[in-house]
Write a structure and sequence with these properties.
elongated, cell membrane, 14 helices, single chain
């Protein structure tokens, strides 16, 4: 409560950051505004217009090129499509009429992926109109997909859960490390040295205090933001997930204290945090599947608690796995956390002896 900057960081990380990560996915077209000028007003042009539907596109029927140009200059439209006069007549006569597609390239992610979608929609509607029927490719086998958890393949569901996992790792390391460094900078660590406290008791107090804060905000974020605001269905047991979070916090807070014993100041701790946090998050299996990584990276990341925590969290929250399935990951997190705790405790004792 005495550190407003930390309070703002905690609030932002488990509210705004999670909502933004879930709703602003660059690979997904969501409510992309496209303006269409239909100068042909034919059956074919109407079919093309009907091919752009929510939630991927929001269609605006413009009356003139001037209106479209003004809208694109103002940033109201990402795409504009102009269907010329006589387009259907030229298509049926075997000619190759042109359709003008304007793209606002300042919106890089949507412009890159969306232009391909627009061209595919136009070509599909024109081909089906000319052939008088919708064709289905004949293949010797029939594939019946069954999609679990995320039947609509909504990437925001995946983004929100993975952002919570990343924020848990980041906040726990930052809070535990910053607490120790600030006590050393403010001189309050000397007050603890004159009290009848052992080094492992001081360290356990910092692990417990940091862990309980992150655990509480994780439960609130999962309930209010993910399930409440984003309406992401959770198939697994939330208490089991929180128990897994507690084990993970034991490991990451120990890592934060260990890094704080190495660093001499907060700026140095911040630089060390960047070198540590990015590999933990990028190679844990949350951003990129572990199967697509080199064998060396897969083997090396088995020593990181984030790898096992990501696998256990995905199994619990996505697939509704129980303790009988995720106990190997939980055991690995506890073993790795114990190793980091003993390593950090040794460094912490050495630091206290030097200060004494």
């Amino acid at each position: 409560m005495r550190d407003p900057a930390m309070l703002i960081l905690i609030f932002y990380s488990f509210t705004v950051a999670i909502y933004s990560a879930a709703t602003v996915m660059p690979e997904t077209l969501n409510k992309v505004p496209i303006a269409i000028i239909d100068e042909d007003n034919s059956q074919l042009s109407n079919r093309i217009i009907s091919g752009f539907y929510p939630p991927q596109f929001i269609t605006y029927l413009a009356s003139s090129p001037k209106e479209v140009d003004h809208g694109m200059d103002a940033g109201r439209f990402t795409f504009s499509l102009t269907i010329p006069v006589g387009f259907q007549r030229d298509v049926l006569s075997g000619k190759s009429p042109a359709i003008q597609l304007n793209v606002d390239a300042t919106r890089m992610s949507q412009a890159f992926s969306g232009s391909g979608h627009v061209q595919k929609i136009v070509m599909t509607e024109v081909t089906e109109f000319v052939m008088r029927h919708r064709t289905i490719a004949s293949i010797p086998i029939e594939l019946n997909p069954r999609i679990r958890f995320n039947s609509s393949l909504n990437q925001s569901w995946f983004g929100s859960i993975m952002e919570i996992i990343n924020q848990i790792t980041m906040l726990s390391i930052i809070l535990s490390g910053a607490a120790l460094i600030r006590e050393r900078e403010h001189g309050t660590i000397e007050h603890l040295l004159v009290m009848p406290l052992k080094p492992h008791e001081i360290m356990l107090a910092k692990v417990w205090s940091t862990g309980i804060i992150v655990l509480i905000v994780t439960a609130l974020s999962l309930t209010l933001i993910v399930r409440g605001l984003l309406h992401v269905p959770i198939e697994g047991s939330i208490p089991l997930f929180l128990f897994c979070v507690a084990l993970h916090l034991f490991a990451t807070t120990s890592m934060g204290i260990f890094m704080a014993t190495i660093s001499r100041s907060m700026p140095q701790f911040g630089l060390l945090l960047i070198m540590t946090l990015l590999p933990l998050e990028m190679l844990s299996g949350g951003m990129t599947p572990r199967e697509s990584m080199p064998d060396f990276a897969q083997f090396l990341m088995l020593a990181a608690p984030t790898t096992h925590f990501t696998a256990a969290s995905q199994a619990i929250l996505y697939r509704g796995a129980g303790f009988d399935i995720v106990w190997p990951q939980m055991l690995a997190i506890f073993i790795i956390g114990s190793a980091f705790f003993l390593l950090a405790l040794g460094r912490f004792r050495k630091t206290l002896s030097q200060m004494a």
